Amino acid sequence: MQNIISSSRNRRIHIRDLIESSYPDIAVHIPIIEQLAVDFHEYKRANHLYDFDDIISQVVRHLKTNDTFRQMLQNQYRYIMVDEYQDTNIPQKQLIDLICEPESVSLMVVGDDNQSIYAFRGANYENILLFGETYPEAKLIKLEQNYRSTPAVLDYINALSEQITLGYQKQLYSGASISGHKPVFSRLTNETKEAKYIADKIIELKSDHDYNDFAVLCRTSFQSNYVQLEFMERHIPFIVVGGIKFVERRHIKDVLAFIKILYNPNDTIAWHRILTLFQGVGTVTATRLTQAINADNNSFEPLLTAKFAKKSEQLEPLHNTLTKANQAESVETVIEHILEFYIPVLKTIEENWRERNEDFRVLKNLATEHSSLDNFLENLALDPPNDSVATTSQPDDNDSDKVTISTIHSAKGLEWPVVFVNSLVDGITPHHRSLDDFEELEEERKLFYVACSRAKTRLYLTAPDYFASYSGYFDKPSRFIAELSTDEVKVETAKHPSLENDDPVWW
């Protein structure tokens, strides 16, 4: 709710329009959310409270209405410098313009319009593109020498830049004498093979690099699931930035709690996690019910007793689910029974349940590789760390030499010698919701530009043959790959086991 209210203010759009375009799952609650925004604002004013947006908007309001205050600030500052100007929003631009109104105040802004990727936070890329209209006497200085990437990587980045429709024309160059390796695009059979390819490349290059020289960059955090699991399997240490570790996500921990109970019905913490999902079952009832289960030799029968059953109508279906799952012959069937019960519960407690539902594919696929619940749980790590930045799956956690797995947004401003960008399927990168909107597609293109420009010496671009979800079936390589000439990228071919004579598969 806070993000919606803040974005509405910073982007100068109505809450209704914002929710209908970006949060359609909660559109039914628009009147309540609009009233909440009003009540929230009135509460702040009544209690003399300010949030971050108020700090900007209140100063802007006083600069507009209070001449003495505005002149005081203008006399205070002779030079104003703004970094990352492409990420400023409308109120921030107003603040800058009002202070810099007289000619006596000099303004310098620094930014890269190709890296304007925060529209969802309210950033307005027009601020940097139209800077010359606001300040006609401004001088444009292009910083085109790149000190990060090799010429081969820069050739690809420049080709990407040429595809961006709106912006300043730039041609990056490097002073390096050695061209380096061309970026590589490889398409794999599925997401598991894609993860194995990335792990294989890291192991292949490890003799010349430390682990912290590698980064895997994803459009959204759930696209790293298979990579995380593959790294855990191969004992490749990693950290996750810009997302919560797969096994720490709320819905994954819920499902694992069901499995833990089946493996060990005496697991009090797992019981509490499950029981408190249901309306009518609080901490006290969950404790008493857990005690009754333990007293009854860890039987599920207390779930059906009258004094507990009346607390929630979910307890009987829970009993039936656990009983069926307990009799299942495979780990995969166990998870299917659990999800059949849990997904309707998830719908009632999480608005973005569809997005979370994507993670269950990984669980089900992983289950096929294990013959018992204890092996399955052991592989996923029984006791993951609590923080939102994942650490290595290995017990010796003190070593800082780890591969970085990050969302592209969180990688902005950073660099690594070797970068992998995965899930490059049209509909995922760019996201399918952006395909019919010019501005959103442009931002997706810039996001890919940011990802590729993080690489210093080697850039690997990967895509599975297809990606299937509730949003659709996507099987074309990303247009950001397809629209460029093969002169700037090396396309690796794969051999499909079903093809005779080892015929290569081309894209």
Brief rundown of the structure:
With about 500 residues, the chain is of the alpha/beta class.
Give the helices and strands, then pairings.
Blueprint: H1 2-11, H2 15-22, H3 30-46, H4 52-65, H5 67-76, E1 79-82, H6 90-99, E2 106-109, H7 126-129, H8 131-134, H9 151-163, E3 184-188, H10 191-205, E4 214-218, H11 225-234, E5 238-241, H12 250-263, H13 268-275, H14 283-295, H15 306-309, H16 315-326, H17 331-349, H18 353-367, H19 373-380, E6 403-407, H20 408-411, E7 416-421, H21 438-452, E8 455-464, E9 467-469, E10 472-474, H22 479-482, E11 490-492, E12 494-495, E13 504-505
Parallel strand pairs: 1-2, 3-8, 3-11, 4-6, 4-7, 5-6, 7-8
Antiparallel strand pairs: 9-10, 12-13
Would you kindly provide a written description of the structure presented here, covering whatever features stand out?
The relative contact order is 0.12. The protein has helices at 2-11, 15-22, 30-46, 52-65, 67-76, 90-99, 126-129, 131-134, 151-163, 191-205, 225-234, 250-263, 268-275, 283-295, 306-309, 315-326, 331-349, 353-367, 373-380, 408-411, 438-452, 479-482, and strands at residues 79-82, 106-109, 184-188, 214-218, 238-241, 403-407, 416-421, 455-464, 467-469, 472-474, 490-492, 494-495, 504-505. By secondary structure, the protein is α/β, with parallel strands linked by helices. The two termini are 43 Å apart.
